[in-house]
Amino acid sequence: MPYEDIAFFFVLKCRILDMMHSICRGLLTARPRLKKKLIFRELNDNQLTDHIPPELGRLTDWFDLNIAGNYLQGPIPDNISSCTNLNSLNLHGNKLNGTIPAALQRLESMTYLNLLSNNLRGPIPVELSRIGNLDTLDISDNKISGSIPSSLGDLEHLLKLNLSMNHITGFIPAEFGNLRSVVEIDLSNNQLSGPIPQELGQLQNLFSLNVSYNHLSGDIPTSNNFSRFPPDSFIGNPDLCGYWRGSSSHKSHPVERVGIFYANVVRTSQAALIRKYIFFCLASFPVYFDFQGNE
User: Fold this and answer.
1) Over the stretch 179-202, which tens digit does the pLDDT of each residue have?
2) How do residues 151-163 score in pLDDT, each as one tens digit?
3) Could you tell me which residue ranges the Disease resistance R13L4/SHOC-2-like LRR domain spans (predicted)?
4) How far is 159 from 202, CA to CA, in rounded Å?
5) Residue 63 and which of 73, 80, 234, 272 are 20 to 30 A apart at CA?
6) Which domains does the chain have, with CATH numbers?
C-alpha cells in the first residue's frame, strides 16, 4: 500500500488529528473519503502551500481548525461556513488574500476567529456581528479598509478585539460602549479620525486600549477607566489632547497639546533641564569689571 494511502487510512479511522510543527509540506487536500466526523485539531506551523480546498466544508462536524503559520494563499472559501459546529478558526500567518467572507456569519457556534497577518482586503463584513458567541476577533496586520461597523458593538461576549495595522478609516463607533465583557481593544496603526467615544469609559472590564498612530482628535475621556492606559496607548495622534490620568496616585497629570505624544513631552522636559544647566554654568563664572584707565 502506498505511503499516501496508509496515511489516509489512518485519518479515516481517527477523530482528532494533531500535526502541529510536523514539517508537513505540499497541498492541503480534502478527499471525499474523509469522514464527516473527523476533527482537525492542529495543522499549524508547517509548510502547507496553495489554496484552502473548498471541500473542507464537507466536514460538517468540524470543531477546531488551526492551519496558522503556513504558506496558504488565495481566498478564504465560503464553504468553510458549512462547518456549522466550528468553534475555533485560526488562519493567521498565511498569505491569504481576497475579502473576509460574509458567509462566516453562519458559524454561530464560533468563539475564536483569528485572521492575523495575511493579505486580506476590503471592508470588515457587517455580518460578523451576527456571530453572537464570538469572544476573540483578530484581523490585525492585513489590508482591511473602510470603516468599523457599528454593529460590532452587538458582540456582547467579545473579550478581545484587534483591528490594528490596517487601513481602516472613519470614527470609533460609540456602540463599542456596549461591549461590556471586552478586556482588550487594539485599533492602533490605522487612519481613524474623530474623538475617542466617551462611551468607552463605561467599560469596567477594559484593561488594555490602544488607539495609537491614527488621526484622532479632541479630548481624551476623563473617566477613571482611562487611568489604566499608559501614554503609549494614545501616542501618534497630533490633534488629541486633554488630561491623562496615568495612575490612581496621580489624579490629574496634564499632557501637552501636542497630542499625548509622549516622546515630545520627554524632549520638552530634557530641554528645560538643559536651559537650567546653561543658566547655572553662566551664573557660576565670576564677572570682572576693569576700571583701569579711568580717572
Assistant:
1) 999 999 999 999 999 999 999 999
2) 999 999 999 999 9
3) 80-215
4) 15
5) 73
6) 3-284 (3.80.10.10)
